[in-house]
Design a protein that fits this description.
Keywords: Membrane, Transmembrane, Transmembrane helix. This protein has one domain. Helices cover 41% and strands 17% of the residues. Helix 1 runs antiparallel to helix 2. The protein starts with 15 loop residues before the first helix and ends in a 5-residue tail after the last strand.
């Protein structure tokens, strides 16, 4: 009995998975790094917010450790754990609400986004700003 020959009319599928993987991989990596970037952005904003709140509270409550604007700014830098922020990023004012500390920070994304500071959206930075005001505490 003669062996049965395979039909040559059926298309071969070798390499199809590699091509499909090549189409899906960039989208998957963009999605994963996008999640990481948004997580970093939220963490940075939360840390900056917490540092301004702590500095405003220190300015209103602790008259020795936060006696002037320079000490308040240095205190805020110390409270911004993990951020590469300078004292110049924090401003101290005294409006009607009490002691107010404001901060601005330029966040650098890992991957370029459509949001940006340039006209064409090619920049991958975002300016974060936060303000905290604490009423004065009298003994």
């Amino acid at each position: 009995m003669a062996p049965i020959l395979k039909s040559r009319t059926r298309p071969r599928r070798s390499g199809a998975v590699a091509i499909e993987y090549g189409f899906v991989l960039p989208v998957l990596l963009l999605f994963i790094f996008g999640i990481i970037d948004i997580g970093r952005l939220l963490w940075t904003f939360t840390t900056l917010s917490r540092a301004t709140e702590a500095a405003a509270r220190c300015a209103a409550v602790n008259s020795t450790a936060c006696a002037n604007a320079g000490l308040i700014q240095n205190y805020a830098v110390g409270e911004a754990w993990g951020l590469d922020v300078t004292a110049a990023a924090f401003t101290v004012t005294q409006p009607a609400c009490g002691k107010q500390v404001s901060a601005t920070y330029t966040f650098q994304f890992v991957i370029p986004w459509f949001y940006g500071t340039s006209t064409f959206g090619s920049a991958n930075t975002m300016t974060l700003s936060t303000t905290a005001c604490y009423p004065p505490q009298y003994p």
